[in-house]
Amino acid sequence: MPLVTSKEMFEKAYEGHYAIGAFNVNNMEIIQGIVEAAKIERAPLILQVSSGARKYANPIYLRKLVEAAIEDSGLPICLHLDHGDSYELCVQSIKDGFTSVMIDASHHSLKDNIAITREVVKYAHDHGVVVEAELGRLEGVEDDIKVSAEESSYTDPDQVEEFVTKTGVDSLAIAIGTSHGAFKFKGEPKLRFDILEEVEKRLPKFPIVLHGASSVIPEYVNIINQNGGCMSGAKGVPEDMLRKAASMSVCKINIDSDLRLACTAAIRKHHAENPAHFDPRQYLGPARTLITELVRHKLVHVLGCNGKA
Length: 309
Ligand code: G3H
Ligand code: 13P
Ligand code: ZN
Description:
Blueprint: H1 7-16, E1 20-24, H2 28-41, E2 45-49, H3 51-57, H4 59-73, E3 77-84, H5 87-95, E4 100-103, H6 110-126, E5 130-135, E6 140-142, E7 145-147, H7 160-167, E8 171-174, H8 193-202, E9 208-210, H9 218-226, H10 239-247, E10 250-255, H11 257-273, H12 280-303
Parallel strand pairs: 1-2, 1-10, 2-3, 3-4, 4-5, 5-8, 8-9, 9-10
Antiparallel strand pairs: 6-7
Helix pairs in contact: 2-4, 2-12, 3-4, 5-6, 9-11, 11-12
The chain binds glyceraldehyde-3-phosphate (G3H), 1,3-dihydroxyacetonephosphate and zinc ion (ZN).
The site of zinc ion (ZN) has 6 residues, from loops.
């Protein structure tokens, strides 16, 4: 089976009131950990590569690893560019074999966001690739760009119809209070489900994407803190909120920070318990295993996409 786009995945997820997990990948162990979970749970998958991941690993290596994952698992897998910041990067990713790209021009004016997104959609659709765009701005850090609380903004539901009609985009990321990274809320977690409901009314049957959707699992944060780390105050999106979003029009839920926490927790614990170990397989193996455990939990208890491949 070749790489697939997310079109059919989203149609089924919308109708079935579940969401597809979009997991960020940076190396072989992360890919293997995620794919093993999806294999066990028979779940469709989106594996996504940020521009930071492209620089770190080289997109060709990542694509080849994802192709190996398809051969090994027989699962439908979509390879997605996460937070593409320019037309050129989206085009290059399509040339590199990606089947889905995100053009994130959310920091531009509405007019410019529409113009840039429309240009990417034209090229992508001519090449059989689907496009995600973003309206509104999430707080947090992605690729060294820090968006402060003051600079972040909720999506305005009054803009979504115009945006989707004028751009022809296939899915839309909206800002309802999630943010990137491990420190998402200072006080009680709160998401603006009223905005999601308004968007849903204006865009019936249209797939919505939720970025910044890690739960920042306390168990992993505790392991890190107990083994020399310092992550006090880390807080994520409660799982019941994510399940509610998945039962609504949210068809894609982005998860990166939880993978990072699982990986770091396993490695820190391993080194604390085995100070003489220096073979990377000895600590990357447990990291990969914990990623599998984490992703199985997400697929079954948060996304509800187990058994849907
Ligand atoms: O949304 C951002 C993702 O977590 C990717 O992070 O740019 O550090 O690879 P990164
Ligand atoms: P988290 O930082 O919450 O995992 O979000 C990841 C993300 O949105 C990737 O695009
Ligand atoms: Zn994101």
